[in-house]
C-alpha cells in the first residue's frame, strides 16, 4: 500500500511553487498524494513568517494535522522554520524541521527518517543560505508559478525576509527556459514569474531580468506570462516597453508602494521616492492604458502621522491603481522598525486600513466596469461554482460564464456583458 502524503502551503506564490515541486518528488518516489483534509502518513508544511499571525497559523495547522493523523510524520520547512526552527521542533507531533537552505533535501530526509521522541532540525544562519531550490508548480491550477529568483539584499526596515530567505540569488536563464518548456508540456498555458525580489534577478549569474523575459517569451506552448511583483526601482523603461510590445506578457503589474510619504519611505529604507513611483505608473499607463496595477501599502508604520497617511491616500487616489493590498504594520523581531519611536496605536492603523479599503473597492469597481461592453481574451480555470466557470482577462479582470468543459484551460474570446457586486464580469463566450 502506497504511503499517503498531504502538502500544506502557507504564504506566497513562491511557497506554492516549492510545495508543488516537493509533491512531484514524492509522487515520482512512489508516494500517493492526498488532499489537505485527507488521512495522511506524511504531512509536509511550507511555512510563512511575514507576520506574527502567519507563525500562529502554522502552529495551529501542525496541531490540527497531529490530532487528525497522530502517527503521521510531520515535516515543516519554509520561512517560519528558517527563523524559529526550535520553536517549531518543540510542538508535539513535529518530526523534522528544515530551514530554507535545506528545503531541497526534504524528500530525502523524510524518506530516511526514523520516528523518535525528538524532532530533527536542519537549519543554518541566514548568511549561509546559498542554495537555490528550483521550483515550478503544475497540476494544481490553470497557471504555473515559476520560481526565478530567491532571497533579498534590500533589508527594508520592517521586513524579515532577508533573514528567512538569505541573499538574492537565481537560476541561470537557460535552466529556467527548460523549466518553462516542462510547464508547456504539462499543458498549462500561463506562467506567473515569481521570486522574493523578482526584478533583482541576475545577482548570482550576472544575467539581466529583461533577458530572462525575452528568453521565456520564445518558449512555445506558453501563451501568457505575468510578473508576480516587481520593486518600483527595478521596473525599467526597457521592461515596460517589452511588456507593451510582447503578445505574451500580460498588462498586469504588482508594484509595492508601502507609503506615499517620502519621510516614511526613507524610514522604511525603501529605494524610491513617491515621485519615482508615480513616474513608473505613468510610464506603464502611457504604453498600456488598460494595465491592471496592484499596489502594496502598509499603514501605521512608526512615525506615520495623519499628514503622512494623507500623502499616501492622495497619491493613490490620484494615480488610480486597480487594487490595493493593504497591511497594518506588523512589528517583526530583529528588524530596525522595532527600535523606532512614535509607534502608531493599532486602532489608528486599523482605521487607516479601512479608509484605504474603501478607496480600493471604488478603484477596483471602476477598473473592472471599464471592461463591460468590450471583447476580451479569457483563460478559463477548471473550478465550477454555481454552474459557472471563472477565469481572468489579460489585464486581470475576473470573468464568469456558464460552465463549458471544452473552454477549460483554453484562451477564449468573450464579450463582456455586465458586472456584479464582487466586481466579476459576466461574459458570453464567442470562440
Ligand atoms: S524588497 Fe521586499 S522582500 Fe526585500 S527586504 Fe524589502 S520588503 Fe522585504
Model description:
The chain has 431 residues and is α/β, with parallel strands linked by helices. The chain has 3 domains: 4-122, Response regulator (Rossmann fold); 143-369, tm_1862 like domain (pyruvate-formate lyase- activating enzyme, Alpha-Beta Horseshoe), CATH 3.80.30.20; 375-429, OB fold (Dihydrolipoamide Acetyltransferase, E2P), CATH 2.40.50.140. Helices cover 33% and strands 23% of the residues. The protein has helices spanning 13-28, 52-68, 79-83, 85-89, 106-112, 161-165, 173-185, 209-217, 237-245, 262-267, 274-287, 306-319, 346-369; strands spanning 4-9, 32-34, 42-47, 73-78, 94-98, 120-122, 143-147, 149-150, 169-170, 190-194, 224-227, 252-254, 292-299, 323-328, 375-385, 388-393, 398-402, 411-419, 425-429. The strands form 5 sheets. A 6-stranded parallel β-sheet has the order 2-1-3-4-5-6, with helices on both faces. The protein has a 5-stranded mixed beta barrel with strand order 15-16-17-19-18. Strand 10 (190-194), helix 8 (209-217) and strand 11 form a beta-alpha-beta unit. Helix 9 (237-245) runs parallel beside helix 11 (274-287). The longest helix is centred in the last third of the chain and has 24 residues, at 346-369. The radius of gyration is 22 Å and the shape is globular. The mean pLDDT is 96. Iron/sulfur cluster is lined by residues 152, 154-156, 159, 161-162, 196-197, 231.
Amino acid at each position: 500500500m502506497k504511503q499517503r502524503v498531504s502538502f500544506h502551503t502557507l504564504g506566497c506564490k513562491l511557497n506554492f511553487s516549492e510545495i508543488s515541486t516537493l509533491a512531484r518528488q514524492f509522487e515520482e518516489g512512489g508516494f500517493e498524494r492526498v488532499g489537505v483534509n485527507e488521512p495522511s502518513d506524511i504531512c509536509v508544511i511550507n511555512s510563512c513568517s511575514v507576520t506574527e499571525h502567519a507563525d500562529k497559523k502554522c502552529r495551529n495547522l501542525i496541531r490540527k494535522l497531529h490530532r487528525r493523523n497522530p502517527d503521521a510524520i510531520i515535516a515543516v520547512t519554509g520561512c517560519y522554520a528558517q527563523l524559529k526552527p526550535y520553536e517549531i521542533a518543540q510542538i508535539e507531533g513535529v518530526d523534522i524541521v528544515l530551514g530554507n537552505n535545506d528545503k531541497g533535501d526534504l524528500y530525502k530526509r523524510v524518506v530516511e527518517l526514523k520516528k523518535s521522541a525528538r524532532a530533527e532540525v536542519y537549519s543554518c544562519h541566514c548568511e549561509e543560505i546559498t542554495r537555490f531550490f528550483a521550483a515550478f508548480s503544475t497540476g494544481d491550477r490553470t497557471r504555473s508559478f515559476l520560481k526565478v529568483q530567491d532571497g533579498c539584499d534590500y533589508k527594508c526596515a520592517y521586513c524579515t525576509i532577508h533573514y528567512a530567505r538569505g541573499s538574492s540569488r537565481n537560476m541561470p536563464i537557460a535552466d529556467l527556459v527548460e523549466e518553462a518548456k516542462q510547464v508547456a508540456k504539462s499543458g498549462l498555458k500561463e506562467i506567473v514569474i515569481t521570486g522574493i525580489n523578482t526584478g533583482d534577478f541576475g545577482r548570482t549569474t550576472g544575467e539581466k531580468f529583461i533577458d530572462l523575459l525575452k528568453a521565456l517569451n520564445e518558449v512555445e506552448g506558453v501563451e501568457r506570462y505575468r510578473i508576480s511583483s516587481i520593486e518600483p526601482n527595478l521596473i525599467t523603461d526597457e521592461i515596460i516597453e517589452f511588456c507593451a510590445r510582447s503578445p505574451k506578457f500580460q498588462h498586469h503589474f504588482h508594484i509595492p508602494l508601502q507609503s506615499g510619504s517620502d519621510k516614511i519611505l526613507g524610514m522604511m529604507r525603501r529605494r524610491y521616492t513617491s515621485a519615482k513611483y508615480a513616474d513608473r505608473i505613468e510610464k506603464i499607463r502611457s504604453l498600456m492604458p488598460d494595465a491592471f496595477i496592484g499596489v502594496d501599502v502598509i499603514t501605521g508604520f512608526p512615525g506615520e502621522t495623519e499628514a503622512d497617511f494623507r500623502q499616501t491616500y492622495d497619491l493613490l487616489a490620484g494615480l488610480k491603481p486597480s487594487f490595493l493590498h493593504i497591511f497594518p504594520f506588523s512589528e517583526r523581531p530583529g528588524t530596525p522598525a522595532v527600535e523606532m519611536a512614535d509607534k502608531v496605536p493599532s486602532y489608528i492603523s486599523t482605521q487607516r486600513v479601512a479608509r484605504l479599503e474603501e478607496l480600493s473597492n471604488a478603484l477596483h469597481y471602476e477598473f473592472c466596469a471599464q471592461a463591460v461592453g468590450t471583447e476580451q481574451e479569457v483563460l478559463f480555470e477548471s473550478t465550477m461554482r454555481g454552474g459557472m466557470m471563472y477565469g481572468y482577462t489579460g489585464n486581470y479582470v475576473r470573468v464568469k460564464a456558464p460552465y463549458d468543459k471544452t473552454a477549460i484551460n483554453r484562451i477564449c474570446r468573450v464579450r463582456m456583458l455586465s458586472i456584479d457586486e464582487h466586481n466579476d464580469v459576466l461574459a458570453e463566450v464567442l470562440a
